[in-house]
Amino acid sequence: MPVPPSDAGHPAPPSEAPTSGGAPPMKVILAGDLDAGEWAAWHAALAAALPEAQWLDAEAARRDPTAVQVAVVANPPPGSLAGLHHLKLIQSLWAGVDRLLADPTVPAEVPLARMVDPAMSAAMAETALWAVLALHRGFFAYQQRQREGLWRQHRQRRAAEVPVLVLGRGEMGGRVAAALRTQGYPVTTWGRGGPPLQAQLAAHEIVVNLLPLTPQTRGLLDARFLAAMPPSAALVNLGRGAHVVDADLLAALDSGHLRHAVLDVFHAEPLPAAHRFWRHPRVTMLPHAAALTDHASAAQVVAANLRALREGAVPAHLVDRARGY
Ligand code: GLV
């Protein structure tokens, strides 16, 4: 029988839901690519935010897969939801749902909600601001000079002299663009249905990618894209690794056409030890940590959506599967 993957070692037992008379508690499974500590932390936050639900672990779901009504998922390994035939909602704890959409065992007819969490958007804006400020003021270059024992200043420019192009006009893109504008950067946003990208690229020194990964955006950041950026431009990739053609990005960095790249996301995560990004002098890496989902605030978002479902309302932030996000 196809079942959720084993979570042997997960400490938290299924919670006994208080029955407040009337309807039986909603049965919810928490599934994902989570270690035991993360699973327990998520379970605690979710059970606190929604005590009236019955939170099942994989073992309980395996005993009675058709009882499971909602799956709360954190980037679950493919196949995690197979056999759950009575699901009414899949609620992602991640903002990006590309991995779920790529899994043929995720039932296509079940509504899928992505995570839209104000705390996560705020964290993303902080990371984008840090990266753009460091690129604009040359702080990554100063870091390199420190390693080389070099005391040398470079020209200081105003934020108004550094145009930034934000790819993505959704929750994250909008929030990041607003934060950068507040800091004085001239910001253009680009998204689906926007004007041709090539023309925009030439006019911007820094590109921040926050697009969702879809068949249309996969590999978008390729040699042609990078060649359209002005000399000494910089890239900040906070979207997905598969937006980038790694070999093309490395070539642009090696030639110096691109001054620097700040990368949070990669084709394979963790990034394999032999990958050149790890040690490239023009690359600054984060371990997919630009905006982690905030347990407490995301649990509130989940609780609101599950209560909406219970009351027969349409859950918020449903994914348009044809669009891909
Ligand atoms: C992180 O990358 C997410 O999609 O939440």
Written overview of the protein:
By secondary structure, the protein is α/β, with parallel strands linked by helices. The protein folds into two domains: 27-117 and 293-310, 3-Layer(aba) Sandwich (Rossmann fold); 118-285, Rossmann fold (3-Layer(aba) Sandwich). The chain is 31% helix and 14% strand. The chain is built from ten helices and eleven strands. The chain has helices at residues 36-49, 58-63, 98-101, 118-137, 139-147, 171-182, 197-201, 223-228, 246-255, 295-310, and strands at 27-32, 54-56, 70-74, 89-92, 112-113, 164-167, 187-190, 206-209, 233-237, 258-263, 283-285. A six-stranded parallel beta sheet has the order 7-6-8-9-10-11. It has a five-stranded parallel beta sheet with strand order 2-1-3-4-5. Helix 1 (36-49) links the parallel strand 1 (27-32) and strand 2. Helix 1 (36-49) packs across helix 10 and helix 4 crosses helix 6 (171-182). The longest helix is centred in the middle third of the chain and has 20 residues, at 118-137. It is elongated and about 70 Å long. Mean pLDDT is 92; it is low at 1-19. It binds glyoxylic acid. Glyoxylic acid (GLV) binds next to loops.
Question: What attributes characterize this protein structure?
Answer:
325 residues; alpha/beta; Rossmann fold; 2 domains; five-stranded parallel β-sheet; 31% helix; elongated; disordered N terminus; binds glyoxylic acid
Task: Give the helices and strands, then pairings.
Layout: E1 27-32, H1 36-49, E2 54-56, H2 58-63, E3 70-74, E4 89-92, H3 98-101, E5 112-113, H4 118-137, H5 139-147, E6 164-167, H6 171-182, E7 187-190, H7 197-201, E8 206-209, H8 223-228, E9 233-237, H9 246-255, E10 258-263, E11 283-285, H10 295-310
Parallel strand pairs: 1-2, 1-3, 3-4, 4-5, 6-7, 6-8, 8-9, 9-10, 10-11
